[in-house]
Amino acid sequence: AGGQLGAHWLVAEHPEWFEGCTEAIGEVGGFSTEVNGKRLYLLESGEKGIAWLRLTASGTAGHGSMRNHDNAITHLARALVRIGEHEWPVEPGPSMQLLLEKVRELTGLEGTPDELLEHFGPAVRMIGSGLRNSTNATMAQAGYKHNVVPGEAVAYVDGRPLPGHHETFVSRVQDIVGEGVRVEPYHEDIPLEYGFEGDLVDAMTVSLLKHDPEAHVAPFLMSGGTDAKAWHKLGMTSYGFTPLRLPGDLDFTALFHGVDERVPIDALQFGTRVFDEFLDLA
What we know:
It is a single chain. By secondary structure, the protein is of the alpha+beta class. It folds into two domains: 7-48 and 93-130 and 192-246 and 253-281, no CATH class; 51-90 and 131-189, Alpha-Beta Plaits, CATH 3.30.70. It contains nine helices and twelve strands. The strands form four sheets. Strands 2, 3, 10 and 11 form a four-stranded mixed beta sheet that branches. The chain has a four-stranded antiparallel beta sheet with strand order 6-8-4-9. A two-stranded parallel sheet has the order 1-12. α7 packs across α9. The two termini are 23 Å apart. The mean pLDDT is 95.
């Protein structure tokens, strides 16, 4: 999902196939979590942008046995440490504000946004990312031989800006890195956020609660990217809704792109019933 050869290709090459479509349903939403012993289904009403960045450091090439105070790898390493240690400020948008309100309701507690989201347990890794911009170094490339100092070192950073932060994100990362290392976009895509209201949201909520009457529903801003970014180009409003009722002790978000990625069979069976209900209502 989100790749250039899937939905983006369809939108670019065959937009006429989607004429008249105004709304879309996609992945990463409708799964259950637990807060204070109560089941809470999260519906994706937005997602962060994509800002994959390339960092390039230059230095003086030379023999590895000699002193070198202009080492490109060292310059790059310092920049990556700055990125890794940077604490982006908490800036929740509308979806996350509604989620925080729901957590307060279910727990009866106050606290900072980070403190409130700790009630999600391990899932806070993904859910908490919706509170702030994020930057994670993912690849580094430099050198070709043990005794040769390279003249250039390159690293790649997975940046995910919040809605409203995309235009200034690269310059903000450059400020964090400082002088001596160039930051440039490698691949970018837009952040999205839609209102948590309307007939489609009502249909998702009703279909879930019909099959799990004691549960609760709230929106969230997803940390990754989906085909919603492509559908947005055609003016569609998109929500993430792939309903799953999960065991409370399953660290579901840790399985994303992980080893043995899976969902329980009974969660899929539940989702089939809910989605069938949703299609009747939508």
